[in-house]
Structures are given as structure tokens and as C-alpha cells.
Amino acid sequence: MRVEVERITGLLQAIYDGEAWHGPSTREILTDVTAEMAVYRPSPQVHNMAELVVHLTNWRVFVLEKLTDSVTYDIILNSEADWPVINELTEEEWQEKLENLQDTQDELLETLSRIHTPKLNDPVPGRRYNYYTLLHGLLHHEAYHSGQMAHLKKMLV
Question: Transmembrane region positions (predicted)?
């Protein structure tokens, strides 16, 4: 009874580093992005690629925590944990952020491999929605912000 979980897993893989339905995958977009490019901000109100990567990573950690039934783990919307401000970055720091994103991908795939479809109907601890909504939200979130990163990268190359 893993059919729906396997579909979600397949979409997560495609969006991150496969053949995504919406265009280049997240990893493909981030290929050859330097630290200097990652902190490029076309206007003060726009998040840069580094902020988007950390934002995605932090929300993936949120999903992982909820998948392990954490009641207390939370991210306050529009907080530093939700949207960190990153104006400067060394190449080493940028690579670390990319590695953290990859690590959460690996952890999500591992965690999802142990979940059965009936859990998708269970409520997420501390939330008013179920795991199905949480995981599909993660997919939409990833695709949306990947599009933003693709747009920022196109401004630079």
C-alpha cells in the first residue's frame, strides 16, 4: 500500500534532480551558480538564490520533523528561519548550503521509503491538515521556488 507515496517520491525526485514537468530541475538550475550569483538581488524586495535554497532546506526539515511526528517543531512564517537574509557568501558557504539541500533530499527519500499510503490521511501534528496535503505542498513549494531561481539565474547568464 505504497502507491501514492511512490508517486509523491517520484515527483520529488523529478522536481529536484530529474526530468521535471515544469522545466529544469532544482539541481539543474543551481548547476554552475557561484556564490556571487547566489547573493544577487535585483531589487531589495526580492529573495536571492541563496535565501531561496536555505528557505527550501528549512521547510524540508520541517516536513522531515513532521513525518517523524514532531508536535513542537515549527517555523514561524516570515521569521529568520523562514526567510534568512543572506547578503554575502563565500564559495565554501554556498557549497555548504547546496550540500544541506542535497542532504534533505536524501533524508526525504529515505523517510518516504518507510511510509505507507494510509499515513497520508493522518493529521500532521500541530497542524490542521494531513500528510497528503503536507507532501503535495512540499512539491508545489519546490517547483515554485525553483522557477524563481531559474528566473534569477537567467538574469545573470
Answer: none
